[in-house]
Design goal:
single chain, about 120 residues, alpha+beta, 3 strands, about 45% helix
C-alpha cells in the first residue's frame, strides 16, 4: 500500500470497525464509514500514519507531539452517542470518569480504535 494512502481508504480496505459492528449489532458499512470519516478528520488536524489496521482495530501514530488542545478537538469529534460504535472502547473501559476521555492519547501520541 502506498505510504500516502489516505487514512479513510485504509479503513475501508481493511473494513476497520466491521468486527465491532457485528459484535454490537451496528450496521457494518455505516460503522466503517463512520470510522473513515472521523479518522480523515483527525488526519486533517494532525499529521499521522496508520501503524495497524484490521476489522477489529486501528492505530494512528501522530507524526509530531500532539497538544492538549488537539486532544480536545479530537474528543469533540466523538459525542457520547457514537463513542462505542466509533471504536473508543479502550478509552471508555479505562476512563476514570473525571479526566478527559482521550487523555491517554496525549501520553501515547497515538489513538487506538478498538472494539472488544
Amino acid at each position: 500500500m502506498p505510504v500516502d494512502t489516505k487514512v479513510g481508504n485504509v479503513v475501508r480496505l481493511f473494513r476497520v470497525g466491521s468486527h465491532g459492528a457485528q459484535s454490537y449489532g451496528y450496521d457494518q458499512n455505516a460503522t466503517i464509514n463512520l470510522v473513515a470519516e472521523k479518522t480523515e478528520a483527525i488526519a486533517a488536524m494532525i499529521p499521522c500514519r496508520v501503524t495497524f489496521a484490521d476489522p477489529a482495530g486501528l492505530k494512528l501514530k501522530f507524526e509530531r507531539k500532539i497538544t492538549d488542545g488537539e486532544v480536545r478537538q479530537i474528543e469533540r469529534l466523538f459525542p457520547a452517542d457514537i463513542q462505542m460504535q466509533a471504536g473508543l472502547d479502550l478509552y471508555i473501559s479505562e476512563w476514570d470518569g473525571t479526566s478527559p476521555l482521550l487523555q491517554p492519547v496525549l501520553k501515547e501520541n497515538m489513538i487506538h480504535f478498538w472494539w472488544d
